[in-house]
Amino acid sequence: MKVNYSQAMARAVQESLQADPKVFLIGSTFAGLSAAGRAAFAPVLQQVASRIMAAPVSELGLVGAAIGAALSGSHPLMDIGAGSFAFQAWAQIANEAPNMHYMSGGQTRVPVTFYCLIGIRGGGAAQHSHRIQAMLGNVPGLQLLLPATPADAYGMLKWALQESDNPTVYLSHSQLLEDEEEVDFSAPMLPIGKARITRAGRDVTIVAHSVMVTRALAAADLLARQGVEAEVIDMRSLSPLDRETMVRSVAKTGRAVVADECHFSFGVGAELAATLAQEAFGSLKAPVHRVATPDAPIPFSPALESALVVTPEKIAAEALAVLDFRKA
User: Fold this and answer.
1) Is the dihedral of CA 322, 328, 276, 189 positive or negative?
2) Residue 185 class from Cβ within 10 Å (0-12 exposed, 13-18 middle, 19+ buried)?
3) CATH fold for the domain made of 196-324
4) 2-182 and 196-324 in the same fold
């Protein structure tokens, strides 16, 4: 069945609500920040009005309420909204939910799922274009999911709601919400914490997550025109993180580029590049290159914003630079 990313999420929520009476939603306009999300979720929200907790705009209070509900035996799914709104509830997301299992000596669990819309989306400017995955990835105890395809959008959200009993942050990129593909809803999903090789190659490995997967695949098409076979890896989740698939790929190609929409300094790309530099050092024929957003606020101006965006062309250029490297 051909569905878009938002429709796949809506189906996962609908099936989870039907399967488990403990699941409920916080936020009466769930996924309402995008037209695609509103269209996909409107029928679901109408059907399950009794399972929705309408709430005032108070991220800190609502996240705290969601954690309390999880501790009491429910599994709330809370729409935080834009990634930048998570900053208002940072104490609860980063200090309460992920630490309670440890601090209680294993006596408590916090089965809560937080949904955020992230990314440079066009016109979001400095305050609504945040990519918060690097910050969240530095918090032990949080599961961090970043599906790049409709199939994973469905499978990973369903897993978070029906199988996970740990706090999970589910991040969707605003530019993926209308992407379409055929989804077999009965097919088993690749396990959480397992990366996917979305395109095989032998010359250079491109490691990506979220919207960067789409752009890495486009970069691989550009490279193919020049006779370069790029292998593209979709990390799918950052916590848990599948380091082994990256290392195995680089053992084959000998070269790597990490594509990341976070800022260049201290971003996800830095962690992935460090992993390869340490664990795949013997296989590397060139330094690991990174392509990321410059360390600057995201402008509102479309022309200025586009100058900062990580494009397929920028990824391909880094891959060619890695291939051109010659040891002294």
Assistant:
1) positive
2) middle
3) Rossmann fold (3.40.50)
4) yes
pLDDT digits (tens, 9 = 90+) for 110-149: 999 999 999 999 999 999 999 999 999 999 999 999 999 9
Task: Show the DSSP H helices in the chain as ranges.
Answer: 5-19, 35-47, 59-71, 90, 100-103, 133-137, 150-162, 211-224, 243-253, 268-279, 302-308, 312-324
How far apart, in whole angstroms, are the C-alpha atoms of residue 218 and residue 316?
A: 9
Kindly report the number of other CB atoms within 10 A of residue 284's CB atom: 18
- Which residues, in sequence order, are CB contacts of 49 under 8 Å at separation 6+? none
Map tokens 């991040």 to a residue. 171
Q: Which residues pair with 36 in a beta bridge?
A: none
**Which strands, in side-by-side order, build the sheet including 168-173?**
52-53, 23-26, 75-82, 113-118, 168-173, 143-145, 237-239
For residue 101, what are its two tokens? 């299992």
Rounded CA gap, 199 and 87, in Å? 36
DSSP assignment of 35-72 equals HHHHHHHHHHHHHTGGGEE---S-HHHHHHHHHHHHHT
**What type of residue sits at position 120?**
I
Whole-number Å distance between alpha carbons of 220 and 223: 5
State whether residue 107 is helix, strand or coil: coil
Where do the structural domains in the chain lie, given as residue ranges?
2-182, 196-324
Q: Which fold has domain 2-182?
A: Rossmann fold (3.40.50)
User: pLDDT for 230-252, tens place per residue?
Assistant: 999 999 999 999 999 999 999 99
Residue with tokens 């890495």: 216
Burial class (CB in 10 A: 0-12, 13-18, 19+), 220: buried
pTM of the model: 0.95
